[in-house]
Amino acid sequence: MGYSLDDMLAKFRPMTAAGRVAGYIPELSKANPDNLGVAICHHDGRAETCGEAGFKFTMQSVSKPFALALALMDNGPESVFSRIGMEPTGDSFNSLMKLETFSSLKPVNPLVNAGAIATTALIKGHSPAVKYERLLRFIQDLAPGCHVGFNEQVYKSECLTGDRNRAIAYFLRDIKAIDGEAEECLDLYFRQCSIEVDCVTLAHLGRSLASMGVGRCSIPPAYARIIRTFMFTCGMYDASGEFAIKVGIPAKSGVSGAIMGVVPNRLGIGVYGPALDPKGNSVAGVALLQELSQLDAWPVL
Amino acid sequence: MGYSLDDMLAKFRPMTAAGRVAGYIPELSKANPDNLGVAICHHDGRAETCGEAGFKFTMQSVSKPFALALALMDNGPESVFSRIGMEPTGDSFNSLMKLETFSSLKPVNPLVNAGAIATTALIKGHSPAVKYERLLRFIQDLAPGCHVGFNEQVYKSECLTGDRNRAIAYFLRDIKAIDGEAEECLDLYFRQCSIEVDCVTLAHLGRSLASMGVGRCSIPPAYARIIRTFMFTCGMYDASGEFAIKVGIPAKSGVSGAIMGVVPNRLGIGVYGPALDPKGNSVAGVALLQELSQLDAWPVL
Amino acid sequence: MGYSLDDMLAKFRPMTAAGRVAGYIPELSKANPDNLGVAICHHDGRAETCGEAGFKFTMQSVSKPFALALALMDNGPESVFSRIGMEPTGDSFNSLMKLETFSSLKPVNPLVNAGAIATTALIKGHSPAVKYERLLRFIQDLAPGCHVGFNEQVYKSECLTGDRNRAIAYFLRDIKAIDGEAEECLDLYFRQCSIEVDCVTLAHLGRSLASMGVGRCSIPPAYARIIRTFMFTCGMYDASGEFAIKVGIPAKSGVSGAIMGVVPNRLGIGVYGPALDPKGNSVAGVALLQELSQLDAWPVL
Amino acid sequence: MGYSLDDMLAKFRPMTAAGRVAGYIPELSKANPDNLGVAICHHDGRAETCGEAGFKFTMQSVSKPFALALALMDNGPESVFSRIGMEPTGDSFNSLMKLETFSSLKPVNPLVNAGAIATTALIKGHSPAVKYERLLRFIQDLAPGCHVGFNEQVYKSECLTGDRNRAIAYFLRDIKAIDGEAEECLDLYFRQCSIEVDCVTLAHLGRSLASMGVGRCSIPPAYARIIRTFMFTCGMYDASGEFAIKVGIPAKSGVSGAIMGVVPNRLGIGVYGPALDPKGNSVAGVALLQELSQLDAWPVL
Fold first, then answer.
1. Contacts D264 to A, Cβ<8 Å
2. What residues in C contact B87, CB-CB < 8 Å?
3. How much is the mean pLDDT over chain A?
4. Which residues in chain B have Cβ-Cβ distances shorter than 8 Å to A164?
5. Is the Cβ pair D171, C164 closer than 8 Å?
6. Exposure on the CB side of residue A78, measured as CA atoms within 13 A
7. What's residue C104's pLDDT?
8. Active-site residue flag, A189
9. Average pLDDT score, chain D
10. D137 in helix, strand or coil?
11. A16 Cβ contact partners less than 8 Å away, ≥ 6 residues apart
12. Does residue A80 carry a catalytic annotation?
């Protein structure tokens, strides 16, 4: 490895000053914008960490790939993709426009909010509580020994302020893109966003998507490839294309400042930096990943 | 008057076969598509009726002008139009697109669903029940002695199937276009849509907007002109422009098959014909109004 | 009449400071933003003028109602409206969006640029020169004795800088909304925009649309009513709805600072004030018309 | 290799019956829908062919990656991406909507028509003829010894019927996304679309993008990676996301029925099958690539 994580962190931490902590949920706005942490989990399970790698934060949109994994394992790809599209979109992550102009009457892909809510609705279980338990356990099993908790305050914040997501969920009901109750589906969605992890957990979760089959309930390789592909084309909000050009690996970001990256067959990476750029991605995290990608020859495309 | 309402009705009733009864609410789909009724209320209070003029139906979108009247009387135009725009739109009545692309972050006008829900949210009252009572009483007072009831079945249907309107209401909350609880606001909106009238009531209500000041709580002439103007530019869904060209009077339609027309300073008119054209307007009702407008020289523009 | 034009002009001229002269064509940007002129032509032909009423300017979009009149007289309404829609739109005047999302594949109405170009394409003539001659003569005949010229510099400016209009014209060709050569059609469109008038001409032209049948080739009353209706619903760009509420008369504005108003059966009005508001309408002109409308009881709706 | 190209072709040729030859250009509509050809060029230069692999066709959109390569080599990535975005889009390839709603006033990516025209405008040369010569020579040098010609009839067809592309080019001029004359830029764009190749040429061109540096003017590896990434996220029109999931390699299609694929560090592939699916991709070609990808383990993501 031709780099030192410590040096990298020292180089990119000043960039956090250029970003802003997410303000749309009161709980998230309390984060310290200076924080920057990184963890790498190699194919052999060996982990490196640096900076605030043990700092806890909520998964937010980083939970979407795992809800998709469980939905695929519960229903199979054919059923999932009869309800949710596969196309990237240059629109904002919380846009409803494509729902209205798209002739196919389904959300464009599983990583924008509309598609993610429709994906979550496909997770099986006799009750909302069972569904959430299954998803939480699934994520815990993919990162054994790592911190996977639940942030009650963030969850309550999401419930109170999630009007745009409510609008999306009811729109999805209207076009019959989801079957169940909108509020039940939203509750599960807000819960999955509020699952709490740290960089080490994220790195292990990223490794679980790198197709090296670890953990009790590892994700089938064919599904892991589907998920990596969505992360590559749509994982970084409406900066996904730019990230694919500049960094060149499958990744998923969340408004908490989390980024989970996957280098296929090699490693998983977790970054935490709550100071965000205008598109909602960790400003220092993206820069750090760009440099790591070049130094360590990550892009496989 | 150079026409006979009986002859007109006989001429246009066969056109009902070209339309379809609204199917999106179970209760509405039970209407008899052959029905066609008309009532005219002249400036002196004299009324003419013909066909199924006494048949009862729910106001649906025809309630919007009266919610606007009450909101104007409660808040004044400046306050109302700081929250709701004045522009017509060629988009569908239940579109959310303008909410997302419009820079001003307010619904385009008070007669599309988004604007109508935001308008209803401005009606004053200490509780939802009080607000509804005020609106119902207001409408009753504008049409004294006429049937103004409430259709519980339709109301329940609206509540159960109103997912698109819920999506709109939560979107409005998200962009801060409404202040209160979305569900409370929707409940009042669904109630106002379920107010039950007949053609005679509609004709009297139309006359109340013709600026001849009748009833205990008549609408101030300046507000009546505002409402007539919105009816002229946006009253007939996305066929408003065509209706303005072909018929040339302020009018408002509802998916129950209702049309309320206003000939300023002369008369109000109520039409009921539940067989709708693809844009949601009574197919025979529009044709009948077009002929009446020509025969009786209605257009003043 | 309860007002003095001189007093009105003195009152509203300071508002010109709040506007900006159109910058998109070099020739237009040379206008003096302080200018404000008004002319009224009453039903009996009597004219009043005030301020820079004799100042010459190009018609720009004020030419659209007359291209529509000639297209209607050449083809009849059925043919015209098989190619061009009747619906107002909240989109910007030079938007292509509705062309792409509208299922009907025709421009939404004859007063947005897309519809106006398609309207101009319907004017008959063996050659582009003949078509232009017919339109110019038509306008001259509607305002006999008034200044109706041609501004060569503005025309050349339009040709050089009309890329958005070229985009629209080629889009119209692509969806088969116009038949002829795009460049020929654009040339006629740029020429009609460059016809030069003054406030007095505009007032006479407005009177010609008030359905009082003057001039050698007066507009048939049924067509004049169609045109007044479009002016009412779509004449003031994406402030048409607000103008209808606040002023309440059919009117058409142009980026030169021109506004032509029509009070049906009573009078025509011409205003010139090149300082524009952000939507492209004369800022002092609109305010002046709003006050005149109230003082002289113009709204008939 | 666990497959026989002959068997594959026999298996997938019947699928051509499910597609339709492109009709929008007269010349293209003359293609034989039954045709299906494939060529693979391995990293060592060894080529396999099968079916109508020697049949000639025009590159159409398959030319876009090479115009991008030359624009990158002429201007550097920073300059190119100051004018053209990097984001995929779920909109149709010839959509103008993003141009109007995108705040950044640049085309979303170099592979939709708007971005491709803006890319072509960045190719350097003292005259249009020189620019075209440079692009043609560039492509010839990337596939030495292969057929690289020019189809005059298709070029003339493109010029005559390219109204949508003209609309795009003038829109780009209007938002200052291109500097030169729209017609000159379009002429070069129509020429590049009319360059004639066969499957063997495409396979060699694909290999030139696989970063194995062959040919006199090979594409710098960093630029080849950029191009492969765009092909992966946006290469197959608005089915790019689905293709990435199902086939998993960078590819670019054209309405002539061409598909060029790249397996990084391994091979290039050329497919010709003029029977297209509704999104404009070769129906049998896509199916054949999906099976080849699975059998030969192509996906690297």
1. 300-301
2. 88, 90, 238-242
3. 93
4. 170-171, 174
5. yes
6. 0
7. 65
8. yes
9. 93
10. helix
11. A33, A34, A35, A36, A273, A275, A283, A284
12. no
Do residue C100 and residue D101 have CB atoms under 8 angstroms apart?
Answer: no
* Residue D23 binned pLDDT confidence (cut-offs 50, 70, 90): confident
Q: Per residue in B50-95, pLDDT tens?
A: 999 999 999 999 999 999 999 999 999 999 999 999 999 867 777 7
Q: What is the ipTM, given to two decimal places?
A: 0.95
Residue contact A233–D230, C-beta within 8 A: no
Query: C-alpha angle with apex D51: D50 to D56, nearest 5 degrees?
Result: 105
Q: On the CB side of D88, how many CA atoms lie within 13 Å of its CA?
A: 35
Strands (E), chain C: 37-42, 47-51, 57-58, 149-150, 195-197, 251-253, 258-263, 267-272
> Does pLDDT of A175 surpass 60?
yes
Question: Does position B215 have pLDDT exceeding 60, yes or no?
Answer: no
Distances (CA, A) of A264 to A207, A298, A299: 8, 9, 9
Mark yes or no for CB contact B241/C233 under 8 Å: yes
The reply to whether A99 touches chain D by the CB within 8 Å rule is no
pLDDT digits (tens, 9 = 90+) for A136-171: 999 999 999 999 999 999 999 999 999 999 999 999
B97 has a pLDDT exceeding 90: no
Look at D166 and C168 and tell me if their CB atoms are within 8 Å. Answer: no
D104 pLDDT band, cuts 50/70/90, is low
B61 in catalytic set: yes
What pLDDT, on a 0 to 100 scale, did the predictor assign at position D91?
Answer: 72
User: Does residue D288 have a pLDDT over 70?
Assistant: yes
Contacts of C181 (CB under 8 A, 6+ apart): none
Identify whether B255 is a catalytic site residue.
yes
Question: Residue B68: which of B218, B194, B248, B230 has the closest Cα?
Answer: B230
Beta bridge partners of B251: B261
pLDDT at B27: 86
Chain B residue with Cα closest to C92? B102
Q: How far is CA B74 from CA B69, B111, B129, B131, in A?
A: 9, 18, 17, 11
* C293–B contact, CB cutoff 8 A: no
With a cut of 80, say whether residue B103 has pLDDT above it. no
Tell me what pLDDT residue C179 has. 94
Q: Which residues in chain C land under pLDDT 50?
A: none
- For tokens 């004044």, the residue is B76
pLDDT at D101: 63
- D5-295 CATH choice from 3.40.50.1370, 3.40.50.300, 3.100.10.10, 3.40.710.10: 3.40.710.10
Q: Is C82 on the interface with B (CB under 8 A)?
A: no
Closest partner residue to D233 (CB to CB) among A88, A226, A264 is A88
Region of B125 please: left (phi>0), alpha (psi -120 to 50) or beta: left
Assess contact for A27 and A38: CB atoms under 8 A: no
Assess whether pLDDT exceeds 70 at residue D251.
yes
Which of the residues D174, D176, D179 would you substitute to probe the C interface, choosing the one with the greatest number of C C-beta atoms within 10 Å?
D174
Please report, in angstroms and rounded to a whole number, the separation of the first and last CA atoms in chain A: 20
Give the CA dihedral D14, D20, D25, D28, nearest 10 degrees. Answer: 10
Instruction: Give every CB contact of residue D225 below 8 A, 6+ residues apart in sequence.
Output: A248, A299, A301, D211
**Apex CA A56: angle with CA A53 and CA A60, to 5°?**
110
A248 interfaces chain D, CB cutoff of 8 Å: yes
Give the mean model confidence (pLDDT) for residues D288-293.
98
Residue B1: what pLDDT?
Answer: 55
Residue carrying the six token digits 């009724």: B37
Q: Is B64 one of the annotated active-site residues of the chain?
A: yes
Contact D229 A244 (CB under 8 A): yes
Interface touch C301/B299, C-beta < 8 Å:
no
For the record, the structure tokens of D186 come out as: 């379009």
Specify burial of residue A4 (Cβ count, 10 A radius: 0-12, 13-18, 19+): exposed
Given the residues C63, C64, C252, C262, the one annotated as active site: C64
